[in-house]
What does this fold into?
Amino acid sequence: MTKSEVKNRIEKLKKEINYHSYFYHVLDEPKISDAIWDSLKKELFDLEQKFPEFITSDSPTQRVGGKPLPKFEKVEHVVRQWSFQDIFERKELDDFLARVKKMLEKKGIKDDSKYTCELKIDGVHIVLIYEKGILVRALTRGDGKVGEDVTQNIKTIKSIPLHLRKDVSVVVEGEIWMSDKAFKKLNKKRIKNKEAEFANPRNAAAGSIRQLDSKVTASRELDCYLYDLSKIIETESLQKPKNQFEELEFLRKIGFKVNNHHKLCQSAEEIIKFWKYWKDHKDKENYWIDGVVIKLNNCEYQKILGHTGKAPRSAIAFKFPAEQAITQVEDIVVQVGRTGALTPVAHLQPIKVAGSVISRATLHNEDEVKKKDVRIGDTVIIQKAGDVIPEVVEPIKNLRSGKEKKFQMPKICPVCSSATFRKDGEAATYCSNKNCYAQDKQKLIHFVSKKGLNIDGFGKKIVEQLLEEGLIQDFSDIFELKKGDLKLLERFAEKSADNLIQAIEESKNIDLAKFLFALGIRYVGEETAVLLSQQILNKSQITILQTIKHFSGMSQEDFREIEGIGEKVAESLYEYFHNEKSLEQLEKLDELGIKFIVKKISQEKSKLQGKIFVLTGTMKSLTREQAKDKIRLLNGNISSSISKKTDYLVAGEKAGSKLEKAKSLGVEIVDEKEFLELIKEK
It folds into this structure.
């Protein structure tokens, strides 16, 4: 080929690669195979190596630069950069909308405004400048007036076009982000190399675009969404869209990757509905979302309203409740659980996290406190997600004053003053007194709880009140309570006393597995209780006395022979059913009229025989417990965690992280309708 032909071929290759890059990296709709894609890029690369005089800055081969930069150049922004004002509550949204309406009316504009709602991606702000369609500069936000030139690094992000689909000169703004998958992969690599982990994807993205060596940036798998056409440099050839909604579509058409999840809203109710949806569904996306940005849709109105010293008056960021916050540890107090385990709990200066005020956070055990080096007086990061118990993530050691105190696990139980001990191979510390008051309290709370006897209205506060008044000491005392015992107590009136006595009476008829779980035998969870109940469930007229006789006649080896029961559980069961106090308590419960509801498990082989189910989310037609009962009655098994052995994941509404794990492992996923079909009796 002549030089002219080479130049022409290079231009055609660049155009073809940019065309397919748009479909591959922006629309996620590849039109050619990876092999063809690689072949096009290789031909271009080879030609440019032979004819370097034809290499241009917008060539796809120039995404990763050569020599590392000595430093980042400071550059003044063409368009002043602003930050959004944050709001967190409905009232603040109403105030913002009212403020916009008032300002528009002052300008003689009737308030028929619409708002474009966009997801607020938790990433790094970037400003891109294109001249005649070619990327010439990329700047960080900086102080709003001056940013750092990170063009060499930005070119490594494949979703950012080096050459637009139209030869326009524009300034655009967007958000660079790192996916959860890439974030986990990066941290795994850093752990292997004994490097400090990044705290979150945003920090990882920020650190990645500020690498002097663009090859490091290229290895970080960054992505970018564009959301603002902030300036058209050549106004003659291009008219700015009239509103924000059209602007997003325009950005997409000229070659940018735009987030699909945006909505045009006409009222506060529509905005709230969009915000609530994404508050509940944000974890299903592969990038972090920390709120919704609400923008006055009309671009002319935006211009009229202008800016305050720091933020636009026409837009606001409606943030989701923070799942992390900073507070101080006022004390570390040890609680004694129903199994006798001592748990250190951080008492905190009250702080709002994930929508609720938190004043306590678990520290799990002695080893965890030492590993995190949490001290009394520390400023700490608290984390709470959904219904998960709040926990201390880590202390901010740079804020220590020197007055902080190290925590020591007590050698004696803080409740009954008995000696504490740790078993070999376990992280937990236990109280040696099996009759410790704190253990009795927790066992009683567990006994009456929803997963136990499910006595309606018999909560933790009632248990504590009755214990302090000396009205109950063990399980059997609950069934001897009379209305008169309750009426004179605080919290109880005639009706509430009647209701509790009635609920106690109704709880006397209980499923055997639930009863065994309610007893609070160490290491016996819901599924172990089911395994035990199945040993005698199909026998007629099961009573507590028959249950005692059956289990007290078993050795540790007999318990271990039950599939699904290990050595620790077998040892615990043997100790319980050979403990004189335990047996006396069970016999008294029998005398007081506790009877088992015998649910006959199908003897016919069903399609669920031996199948392992995991449940996540909520269903409209069944509670979690009802669903488990249906599975068990058809000889299916239940597990609390996903593995390759799982046969079905039942995914209800607001399904959690188990859903993603099931997808990655290829586990069959069924929704509520499909599950009801599975358990339908013939």
User: Anything to note?
Assistant: The CA atoms of residues 338 and 440 lie 7 Å apart. The first strand starts at residue 74 and ends at 76. The chain has six domains: 3-62, 86-319, 324-422, 437-507, 510-597, 612-678.
